[in-house]
Structures are given as C-alpha cells and as structure tokens.
Task: inverse folding
C-alpha cells in the first residue's frame, strides 16, 4: 500500500457494496416490472391480432358481397339462357350447345345475340369474357341461389346426355312446372 492511499475501512467497503447491490436490485425490479408490462401489452396485441384475423376470415368469406347490378344481370337470365351462357363460356359452339340442351340452334344464337347486345358486347368473344367476369363474382352458394345451377354445372354435366343431368328440369321445358323446378333444385343440392 502506498503512503498516499488511505486505509480502506472494511465496514465502509461493505456499506458501499450493499448500496450498489440495493441500487442494482431496484434496477432489476424496474426492468422486471417493465418486462411484465410489455408481456401484458404483447398478449393484448396477440388477442387483437387473432380478432383481426377472425374478422378478415369472416370478411373474406362474405367478400362475395355481390353488387345488386350483378344479381340483376344473372337473375334476368331464364334457366335455359343460364344453361346456354354456362356452356358458352366453356367454348362450346352454338350447334353443340343446342344439341346438348335439346333446343333449336336458333334459340341458342338468338339468346347469345340478344344478351350480348343488352350487355353492350361487340362480339361473342367479348360476351364470353363478360359472362366469365360475372360468374366469377359469385361464390358457389350465391351462384346457386341466383341461378339454381351449381357453378361447376357446365364442367360436370356439359357433356352428358340430358337424361343424366340432374338439373335438366331447369332448362327442359317439358319437365315439370316452375314450382316443381324450384323444389327439385333444392333437393338436388342436398
């Protein structure tokens, strides 16, 4: 020990260490309190995130909130016109559509011409695209509610004989009355 250094009192040294220790314990307590508060805020944010995700899922399920104009467009189609339009978007010719549905080719052509004109489409290709866009705006449930057809009707039944099509009552005017058609459509989906 050098002569310039004062002797260290062990009691004083212990007191200094105890004070430092107490100050550190206060800082640890403060950090732990902040940590607990942050954990609470994190848990709250997780709950809000879960609620937001649930809301977004619900919103996406109802994202098919259909514009009334789209409902009007699809509802203005008779069941036969709907079948013609569904088969049209698959690329079938008017002659093939007529054979498939058991109607005159003139009926198919006239339906396509009139609807194309009413929808202000310049040609069949433009009309097919307008139909695709309209049909895409509907989810399966709303499409069925609006038309009586499942959305994938043309893919499933477009190339089967009328006798094998469970929805033929919709477009085949010789099968049943309109009220029977509605009841049978509901039964076909069950």
Result:
């Amino acid at each position: 020990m050098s002569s310039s250094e004062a002797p260290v009192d062990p009691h004083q040294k212990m007191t200094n260490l105890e004070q430092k220790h107490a100050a550190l314990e206060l800082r640890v307590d403060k950090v732990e309190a902040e940590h607990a508060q942050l954990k609470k805020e994190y848990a709250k944010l997780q709950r809000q995130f879960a609620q937001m995700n649930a809301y977004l899922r619900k919103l996406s399920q109802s994202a098919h909130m259909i514009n009334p104009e789209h409902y009007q467009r699809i509802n203005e189609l008779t069941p036969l016109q709907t079948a013609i339009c569904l088969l049209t978007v698959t690329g079938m010719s008017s002659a093939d559509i007529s054979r498939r549905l058991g109607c005159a080719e003139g009926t198919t052509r006239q339906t396509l011409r009139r609807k194309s004109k009413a929808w202000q489409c310049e040609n069949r290709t433009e009309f097919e695209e307008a139909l695709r866009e309209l049909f895409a705006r509907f989810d399966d449930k709303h499409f069925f509610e609006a038309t009586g057809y499942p959305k994938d009707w043309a893919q499933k039944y477009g190339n089967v004989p009328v006798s094998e099509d469970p929805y033929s009552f919709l477009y085949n005017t010789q099968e049943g009355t309109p009220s029977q058609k509605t009841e049978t459509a509901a039964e076909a989906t069950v």
Notes: The chain has a mean pLDDT of 83. The radius of gyration is 37 Å.
